[in-house]
Amino acid sequence: IVKTFLASTHTPPQQKHLVDPRTVVERISNLVAPRLQSLKAQVQIDSESEILPLRAVPTDLEQVLINLTNNSLDALSESSKSERKLTYKIRNTAEGSKRTLEFSVSDNADGIKPADLKQVAKPFYTTKAPGKGTGLGLTICQQLVKKYGGKLELDSVLGKGTTVTIRIPYDAT
User: Are strands 41-47 and 84-95 parallel, antiparallel or unpaired?
Assistant: First the structure.
């Protein structure tokens, strides 16, 4: 009985698989569709036609994209703009012989104040009201992206919106 119980509660190590980045973005977009509808926000997925699959743990990529998407949706919900947009971009890039997958999640909300922009990726730092956020989303994203030898970059302009870009090298996966 104890062996059966322990076997049923044991989480096996997550295996890396070839993951289609477009499928992950579409899954996340469908997952947050009710929230997008309630905000009357438009979603756009801009993808190159030849996106290579990435060898990764699927839930790692999903976790990163859901955190980034939720941050954008939170910002859009607080924005006074009448036209709200959420945009995903997926690209293959290359620097020399190094190929990289580039994901970005952008919103056209109010942007992040420059003083906050330097802090938002630190653990437990949040610009949200008490009870609305933990300040761990971007920290978790950074850790997951680093696990694959990648980078996370934030770009925000007050009044225009925020873009978070992650770059993961194909050879590191």
Answer: parallel
Residue type, 80: S
Strands (E) located in 2-159:
17-19, 41-47, 54-56, 84-95, 98-107, 151-157
Number of Cβ atoms within 10 Å of the Cβ of 103: 25
Q: What is the mean pLDDT of residues 124-149?
A: 76
**What are all long-range contacts of 34-37, with beta carbons under 8 Å and residues at least 24 apart?**
35/73, 36/73, 36/86
- For residue 105 the two structure tokens come to 């999640």
140-158 pLDDT per residue, tens: 888 999 999 999 999 999 9
Alpha carbons 162 and 72: distance in angstroms, whole number: 8
- Cα–Cα distance, 172 to 103 (Å, whole number): 16
CB 86 within 8 A of CB 98: no
How do residues 49-103 score in pLDDT, each as one tens digit? Answer: 889 899 998 889 999 999 999 999 999 988 878 899 999 999 999 877 889 999 9
Determine contact, residues 121/138, Cβ cutoff 8 Å.
yes
Q: What share of the chain is helix, strand, coil (3-state, %, to 5)?
A: 40, 30, 35
- What is the pTM (predicted TM-score) of this model? 0.83
